[in-house]
Design brief:
Largest sheet: none
Shape: elongated
Helix content: 55-70%
Number of strands: 0
Strand content: under 5%
Number of helices: 8
Mean pLDDT: 85
Order of helices and strands: HHHHHHHH
Low-confidence stretches: none
């Protein structure tokens, strides 16, 4: 932190916008710390320790500042007060899909926890057998619980849509 002024001078000279300088400074300090812990900072024993550290921090700050300035985010970011006002069409799912999703969520909220858990297990990347083993149950039991939970959800949805 004693070299804060040196790091900030490099960040400013590199063209980092004022709104991002604190973040880039934090990235520089953390990046330098991590690389020092990994053993990448190896100054010559004959060098002045303060000058060697200053030079190393200058190099890290320059590298990360240029990385930030040349990133796709920085090159393409256009800040505006009303970003959705620039769009010609609606974005996202249509209103009917949102209403249907809300109905399913409300119906799932009425189910017992074990049924919700069984229904959500289908969305996880693991198989039903792996889910059953993780829960210390027979795979047939897990399949049966999933079937019961699907039937209960279907019943609740039919009641809602009448």
């Amino acid at each position: 932190m004693a070299e804060r002024s040196t790091i900030m001078a490099v960040i400013v000279a590199s063209g980092v916008p004022a709104r991002d300088r604190a973040d880039v400074f934090q990235n520089v300090v953390m990046g330098a710390w991590r690389s020092i812990k990994r053993g990448l900072y190896r100054p010559a024993p004959s060098d002045d320790p303060r000058k060697a550290l200053r030079g190393y921090l200058y190099a890290v700050a320059r590298h990360l500042s240029m990385h930030h300035v040349n990133s796709a985010w920085e090159r393409r970011a256009v800040l505006t007060e009303q970003p959705l006002g620039l769009l010609r069409d609606l974005v996202g799912p249509d209103l009917e899909a949102q209403v249907a999703a809300r109905e399913v969520l409300d119906a799932m909220a009425e189910l017992p926890d074990w049924q919700v858990e069984a229904l959500l297990s289908v969305d996880s990347p693991e198989s039903l057998v792996a889910y059953a083993k993780r829960r210390r149950m027979n795979p047939s039991t897990a399949a049966s619980r999933l079937r019961i939970a699907r039937e209960a959800l279907n019943l609740r949805l039919r009641r809602w849509r009448r």
